[in-house]
Amino acid sequence: MCELLGMSANVPTDIRFSFAGLARRGGGTGPHRDGWGIAFYEGRGCRAFHDPQPSADSEIAGLIRRYPIKSRTVIAHVRRANRGRVALENTHPFLRELWGRPFAFAHNGQLKGAKRLPLGAYRPIGTTDSEHAFAFMLHRLRSRYEREPAPATLDRRIAEIVAELAPMGVLNLLLSDGRTLYAFADKRLSYLTREAPFGKATLVDEDLQVDFARETTPDDVVTVIATRPLTRDETWTTIPPRTLIAFRDGRVASTYAAA
Amino acid sequence: MCELLGMSANVPTDIRFSFAGLARRGGGTGPHRDGWGIAFYEGRGCRAFHDPQPSADSEIAGLIRRYPIKSRTVIAHVRRANRGRVALENTHPFLRELWGRPFAFAHNGQLKGAKRLPLGAYRPIGTTDSEHAFAFMLHRLRSRYEREPAPATLDRRIAEIVAELAPMGVLNLLLSDGRTLYAFADKRLSYLTREAPFGKATLVDEDLQVDFARETTPDDVVTVIATRPLTRDETWTTIPPRTLIAFRDGRVASTYAAA
Known about the structure:
homodimer; 259 residues; alpha+beta; Glutamine Phosphoribosylpyrophosphate, subunit 1, domain 1
């Protein structure tokens, strides 16, 4: 199993606090020693950092923990390999361009038969079932829409595609095109929306506390999504099994329960 | 104008010495303040670092200068914007998947009419003529070959595509699929092959010297390609105008002069 971390916000927001908690699970407080990665959207662009080293002692993870990259949409992942050897090309999040947007994808779980899914123009670079599933999703989207559809249309279509994949195994995923952050929970994924009045929060995995009242403005809305709650003094909401939530600007934009 | 840096080697090699020289040109000894990026191939994978900040004072560039990522193929770029605003999505090298390989591309120059080139399945994320030209090249390759051709075949086809683009303006480029590093010089691009017996080298842009005899084994072959020679005590070869050189394992694999 792997751990996922996502963020959707209405203003560019520093994710270092949450990332510190996730990074500790990559070989520190957790068994996820097989690499990690993080993708930050900034404007139309996306930059990603990938490392096959455990995040708990990765120099690049150290940089991310110190360097305040501000983003409205973030996807991060720490890996415990099951399918696909420990290698850079098997490190999530995976990135591909569709409709002139950088799509990012991270997955926790295993899918049986993923490698037999049709992929169209996309070819996996690594050997994970996750990257195959991502290529399949993009192929399905590209086949249906030549250009980017309206966000609500895309939400519905992604819910349909995820419902095709879900019966194949365990599927906890984060997907984004930079406008919307999609979270699908199979077994476990929780989220938390921070907005005014902001309070304090303490990490579960590290002795680190932040007073968000000092870090934010009253209009900020920031949702954090994680495999397991990252803080011990806030109330996290569990995403119901087999449910897709589309987050935009830090808020739930739509919810689809798979049949 | 921008500055390019490439490396092709027969063993995973640390590029920090050359990168230190390039990074100084990004707002330090050079005027290229509009961002920088670097792509490292490792196995089948590729990791890239992009930053719209000047490389001379970028924290991420600082990390790259300290952190020994070893790679056989590297493409780096420091940018001085002409087309396309200063933004993450306009920062080279650009990356796209083709035939299950991560292709990376960096360009120095301007191309007239690049935005009218046919792109097929690829869509630019940013607004540079460079990313358009890259998408065009991948589209041409994909249209001709459903699967990856043999390296020599690919060399020849890339020479043909580059010859189509060259008359549109100024085209100095580095392109790689992780196996081969392609360098096309319009006006200025030089390279240097280091092999046994290794000696010392001193950067032009920074008071930094390396004794490669202490950093290498006798079988290492490492070619570095740069817009302007990076060292003051080695003999660099200027790539002839309108010539494509394909480097594999640190050596020249083929050379094509555009008509």
